């Protein structure tokens, strides 16, 4: 498809990942009273990238996102389920799978994404047990940091497909703003 053909398509069709990111941020932000309530989404953002890197398929980002969506949903609605710990456990299995398939190279793949997931999960775990203000600031900071991560990966076309990076950048940014608004309202 030529560039001219792509430009002829309606904006909403060309920018569907951004539109989906807006919708997901609105959905995730409904009724929250603390950043701690959406802390697992910070973990999910790292989990999606790690999963895609471990599977060595950029297109795997969307199925891995679907898994994170289910895990976060269960963590939000079923008492006793901590979505962050479940995603860390799933990530460990993905790392083992990836390493056995030679995914230690390139260094921006599994090695870097594993570090990023560890940082995201640590932020989510801190926020989950923090007071409302600290939780909001930590979650918003994690989401804003991941927005930069998304933009970098969108530009370099590494690890995840561009549609996921665009979706995630919009989701992370808007959800961070919602969290800050709730925190300081």
TrEMBL record:
Keywords: Membrane, Transmembrane, Transmembrane helix. The chain crosses the membrane at residues 12-32, 38-55, 60-77, 83-100, 107-128, 134-152, 164-184. This is Uncharacterized protein.
